[in-house]
Amino acid sequence: MRxxxxxxxxGYRLAFDGFEGRAQVLDGIDLRVEAGETVGIVGETGCGxxxxxxxxxRLVPMPPGRVLGGHVRFQGQDVMAMDRAALARLxxxxxxxxxxxPMSYLNPVFTIGAQMVDVIRxxxxxxxxxxxxxSAARAAAAELLGAVRLPEPGRLLDRYPHELSGGxxxxxxIAMALSGQPKLLVADEPTTALDVTVQAEVLRLIxxxxxxxxxxxxxxxxxxxxxxxxxxxxxxxxxGTVVEDGPAETLFDRPRHPYTRGLLAAVPDLERPAHRxxxxxxxxxxxxxxxxxxxxxxxxxxxxxxxxxxxxxxxxVDGRRVACHRAExxx
Length: 331
Ligand SMILES: Nc1ncnc2c1ncn2[C@@H]1O[C@H](COP(=O)(O)OP(=O)(O)O)[C@@H](O)[C@H]1O
Ligand SMILES: [Mg+2]
Fold this sequence. Notes:
CATH topology of the largest domain: Rossmann fold
Number of strands: 12
Bound molecules: adenosine-5'-diphosphate, magnesium ion
Distance between the termini: 40 Å
Number of domains: 2
Shape: globular
């Protein structure tokens, strides 16, 4: 029998209920990720990238979140149906996540060592193994800090999060993420809060770790440059839908969705400063009352009446999947 894909999301619809009503935040996401892929997810702020990423490890708070349909499966197992033991096996040995703001995920009152020891032992338990003694977990923590290229790991274990720089904290969290020996690393804007030079170092570290540990990578960023540097496949999201999905070079060189084209045109070109970056006019829609048909149609320069009337399905065109009625004409 063929192995199921590492991650398979089908028809996934997620909403948030609030005072003003129900925001339809993800609307029918279909996405399959095979082991070993490096997938970048890109789109403007508010397009649903983070809630999609968090859904993979069932980290969306429910309520106010509510799944309206579809499935998220990891190695064939329905993530929504998992019990506590299955969730513990998912988080750590299955999926590890790193986020934009490392300080929020470190406890300011405990040393780095104490927090890493707890995480490492929790992963032992999650994997169904006997928890190793604290001394052994501490040795493993030091080794992991070395692996993320932090100097003097032994001394670092006794320091507190506020004594570290932002880049160092993010490395600590990457080390914690790796401690469960995950299959899938989900990195949600991992470098957005860092200085540009530190950003490049952390990206290179992630790239090396992915290659070295044969990790599957799902990298979320609003920055196409970051995605292009690390990912062979790019998924473009707009207002809770996947609009284009394919090999990075195909999407960057020959985008077929007007939104992908718009995103690319909005990137400043350092080699041709005279070539002004063109922001996409308008804003992402209010998800309490999203546009009919293609959610991008109110901002789309190519929109036809059919675009407001019918939602374009994701279909195979020219070596990628694209959801646009006019995909053949965009070149
Ligand atoms: N916990 C939450 N409660 C209510 N709404 C939320 C919550 N988390 C995210 N949202 C909403 O979901 C939408 C998508 O958010 P998000 O996934 O963070 O976007 P992105 O990561 O692409 O910037 C936004 O409209 C946001 O306001
Ligand atoms: Mg986000």
